[in-house]
Design goal:
The structure is a homodimer of 233-residue chains. With 233 residues, chain A is mainly α. Chain A has 10 helices and 3 strands; from the N terminus they run H-E-H-H-E-E-H-H-H-H-H-H-H. Chain A has a 3-stranded antiparallel sheet with strand order 1-3-2. The longest helix of chain A is centred in the middle third of the chain and has 25 residues. The interface between A and B is large, with 45 and 45 residues. Chain A binds a DNA duplex (30 and 30 nucleotides) through helix 1 and helix 3.
Chain lengths: 233, 233
Amino acid sequence: MTQPIAQALSARLRDMILAGEFQAGQHLREVQLAQLFGASRTPVRLALAANEKDGLLEYSPNRGYVVRPFAGEDIAAAFEMRAQIEGLAARKAAERGLSPEAARRIAETIDTDARVLSGDAPLDDGAREAWRANNAVFHKTIIEAADNRFIGPALQTVQRIPGVYPPVLASYDPVLLRKYNGHHRRIGECILARQGTRAEFLMREHVFEAGEDILTSLHPAHGPTQDLAGAAE
Amino acid sequence: MTQPIAQALSARLRDMILAGEFQAGQHLREVQLAQLFGASRTPVRLALAANEKDGLLEYSPNRGYVVRPFAGEDIAAAFEMRAQIEGLAARKAAERGLSPEAARRIAETIDTDARVLSGDAPLDDGAREAWRANNAVFHKTIIEAADNRFIGPALQTVQRIPGVYPPVLASYDPVLLRKYNGHHRRIGECILARQGTRAEFLMREHVFEAGEDILTSLHPAHGPTQDLAGAAE
DNA sequence: GTCGGTCAGGTTGTATGCAATCTCATTATC
DNA sequence: GATAATGAGATTGCATACAACCTGACCGAC
């Protein structure tokens, strides 16, 4: 965290970058942002430095900050990291075991999602919001159960990517969401059964597939094969 | 990175924290540090914010920064993350394949280490420095070969831990170093053979064991079992 | 016409002053 | 004696002034 105003500016700036309000490579001038935010250069400078640390900006001495570009391979790399780290979280959660409260929350998100997705019609706004919230709770609960203080921050930096920020989520295609709901159910079962290895790899695959689906929705031309799967084999 | 002076101060402050020159929980006052560094509060404030982002300090609004304490379980958690991320790096390096130059560098570190460790006498300073440098090259080469821009930064935050910073390295016990040299050789072989899964798990285990060894050397009383292995099983 | 130098404008880097907040010892009250 | 209120000192938060640096246009030399 940062200072009262600087803290708020850092978050506002981050949201603007994630929302794509700046072009990749754009030079962010301190005075310009200061006027935009109605503050002085001092908190703006802190906000810029914070977002650089988060990987959203690039810094050059005496030249300032530019918006970092994110190409398809960067998004693929981010999902690789997410898959690896959330895999660790699932394994640790299975090994440590869930608290009754955590188990209840996970079961509830899975059941609620299944009910929301049971129909055939495209999802309305309420259903999409319900799914988004449940998805967040599912992953967050597992991450907390893993009880490793480095997991949360590490995940944030690979999740907060312009253009792929969770709210996008593969256009909420019901077919995909039903698939994910199935993943969640099996992952939850593995964790409850204390099967750490299965939980790890199911979670890894779950996140990896979600990344593939998002890349596919971004580049409908060439499938995800080129993007996410490595060159080898 | 940050600004010229602020950048340097950030690194100096980080090194001081890693070297244990502050007590855990100690309040770092801006004017005090500014006098120590011979600068004004402005770059000091940036350095503090940068080290907070790196997880070495904790911030409270209007109260400033205190040195973050690292307990045994934090060190164990950091090695868990390192094992998981370097495992990903090894797998990706195996899947993508090494460049001839990378393969040569890795082979060289392994062979040189084997030669340095061939004797029975405790290592002199030169030998220790040689091992440290080779170890760094070995891991760095694999990380670069993985070609995932999120791996490097993520590893830095879990490697830079007060009291466990690499230079310590389990007191350079030749028995341990020979074991690690064997790990390196097998990991290198797996990567060259494009065996990603084996490379991943050998690397995971390599880092995990190194963490165990360091925790053992820190708490000779209770073995690493309680610290690194989870509660389950 | 091309290359190098120079200067003005603009942008970042640092220092400092003032306001807001916190800390903690002292005092007043019950 | 314990607890709450108060106020002075110290510390952080922000704004602003000045210095250093970079950028790009203009000009002159070859």
